[in-house]
Design a protein that fits this description.
The chain is built from 18 helices and eleven strands. The protein is globular. Helix content is about 45%, strand content about 10%. The strands form two sheets. A seven-stranded mixed beta sheet has the order 1-7-6-5-4-2-3, sandwiched between helices.
């Protein structure tokens, strides 16, 4: 016992073997900066399972150096190198090296944000960051933010671990707002009292899957989500939305919320938020905006017009671990009114007492890390000008990729958004010509067959590219294209600060090579 205490719970443990610290720093540096051949782990996942298929927990502890060796051999060697310049398939990208330091500071401080008694200055940091972000969305006056910061009775939002928890929190508040007393009485009682035939939440076909999870968790059921078809730009169809609202009202179904998406996961598109806000106001329903992906663009004035109407939202979700370049996991949910979260208010005798100002009083989560420090540190480090420069770099990468795809006769651009997500597919020029002729002649059956052939080719191409591991793009399936049926597309997210135009060209060259062999 004494050895454990002296080694791991006292400063003498750090001083005794400085090589361990150097070993740890070397692992971090090599992972962040050393040029790697593979952008995706080369080992077969089923084979890798054997490395971890040990049922018995270690009986005796090992030396720290041996554990570090095991970490390097078993974990680092088989982790996805998301900082690789040719890893452009998902929203997790290369991070600035300071993010590792901030994670160390968070672990060192080990603050629990549920209660001021376990989160002293960190409570104020969290409130400050929430105020900064709320101001980017709603732009209230100075007095509002001063009063809100000082108040123990209100809060502008919650820090959460990502968009899923943010959407769950927002919809929890929306339900209690639209159906006061729901938390105590439950759905069945209120259905009877209000004479409703059911409940509904409206969103486009591009809405994030976490909304369905939230509705299932809240007891509404996944079927409560009414999906509205999108237009050609993957934005919610306003005519279809109006028709669905009229239908639900006729059936006496209570519409609880309307969700707008500001940066869809699949295509990066932004719904017409101003129009959605006016509809929500007219129908007196909760207006929620899922800006988990695109919300960071509000930091740069040149992108703000794309989000016109977001200030009408009753709640907004934004993820820090996406376009703010901070480590997983960090998100936030902001509310237009600083009293909205009081609908979730809960207290306990030993903690989060009434009027205490404890952040846990209005959070669905209990114990929480001091993840607000990630944004606080980054905002102070980069400032608005720094973030505008980073976002500008993303714009340049997205523009470069778009031009490469458009100019290459063996690829077809499907979507290209202002939030740096692009979808395309491998389509040899001869097949493109055949497909175009079928569409012009109205031969939808042959067009569908050609399209299905291209779908199979692109699935096989993406699988093979992932197997090779030299570069990585993702794939999805879209129904909102001019072609019959669903279209399988390759999807890239152009936010990796280490990616160059040359890397993009190499990725397309590899895809053409693979495609020509299919």
């Amino acid at each position: 016992m004494e050895e454990l205490l002296n080694t791991y719970f006292s400063p003498s443990g750090l001083d005794k073997d400085p090589a361990l610290l150097q070993h740890s720093l070397r692992l971090i540096r090599e992972w962040l900066f050393v040029d790697k051949r593979h952008a995706y782990p080369p080992a077969d996942f089923e084979a890798l399972k054997k490395e971890f298929d040990t049922l018995a927990m270690p009986r005796e502890g090992a030396a720290a150096g041996a554990v570090l060796d095991a970490l390097q051999r078993q974990v680092f060697a088989h982790s996805v190198p998301v900082n690789h310049p040719k890893y452009i398939g998902h929203m997790t990208q290369a991070l600035p090296w300071v993010s590792v330091l901030v994670e160390t500071f968070i672990a060192t401080l080990n603050q629990n944000q549920v209660k001021i008694e376990t989160a002293y200055s960190s409570t104020l940091v969290e409130k400050q960051v929430l105020g900064w972000m709320h101001r980017q969305i709603y732009r209230y006056g100075e007095a509002f933010y001063h009063d809100s910061f000082r108040s123990n009775e209100s809060t502008l939002g919650n820090m959460v671990n990502g968009g899923t928890m943010g959407n769950l929190t927002a919809l929890s508040v929306a339900l209690e707002s639209q159906m006061p007393g729901l938390r105590k009485k439950g759905f069945l009682t209120l259905l009877r009292e209000k004479n409703y035939e059911g409940f509904a939440v409206l969103a486009s076909a591009r809405v994030h899957y976490s909304v369905k999870k939230a509705l299932a968790t809240l007891g509404l059921g996944e079927d409560a989500l009414c999906i509205i078809p999108t237009d050609d730009n993957n934005r919610i169809g306003l005519d279809a939305l109006e028709e669905k609202i009229a239908e639900l009202k006729e059936r006496k179904v209570k519409i609880l919320a309307l969700i707008g998406v500001a940066g869809t996961t699949e295509t990066g598109s932004i719904d017409p938020l101003a129009e959605l806000g006016r509809i929500a106001r007219r129908e007196e329903i909760w207006f929620h905006v899922d800006a988990a992906w695109g919300g960071a663009l509000l930091l740069a004035d040149k992108y703000r017009d794309m989000f016109r109407g977001i200030e009408m939202a009753d709640s907004v979700v934004i993820d820090g671990h996406k376009l703010f370049w901070v480590s997983m996991a960090q998100g936030m949910v902001l509310f237009k009114s600083d009293t909205s979260l009081n609908r979730l208010l809960h207290t306990a005798n030993y903690i989060i007492r009434k009027s205490s100002g404890d952040l846990g009083r209005t959070s669905l989560e209990g114990s929480r890390r001091f993840d607000a420090l990630k944004l606080w540190f980054s905002f102070k480090l980069f400032g608005l000008e720094g973030y505008e420069a980073l976002l500008g770099r993303c714009h340049e990468l997205a523009s470069a990729m778009r031009e490469l795809v458009v100019q290459d006769p063996d690829f077809e651009l499907i979507t290209c958004s202002d939030t740096f997500i692009l979808t395309y597919r491998y389509a040899p020029r001869a097949m493109q010509a055949q497909l175009e002729a079928c569409m012009q002649n109205g031969d939808t059956e042959q067009a569908a067959r050609l399209n299905e052939t291209l779908n199979r080719m692109n699935i096989a191409l993406q699988d093979e590219q992932k197997r090779r591991g030299l570069s990585f793009v993702s794939r999805t399936s879209l129904e909102s294209t001019p072609y019959p049926g669903h279209v399988t597309v390759l999807r890239v997210v152009l936010t990796n600060m280490l990616t160059t135009a040359g890397n993009l060209r190499e990725i397309l060259d590899e895809q053409r090579e693979i495609g020509s062999e299919l």
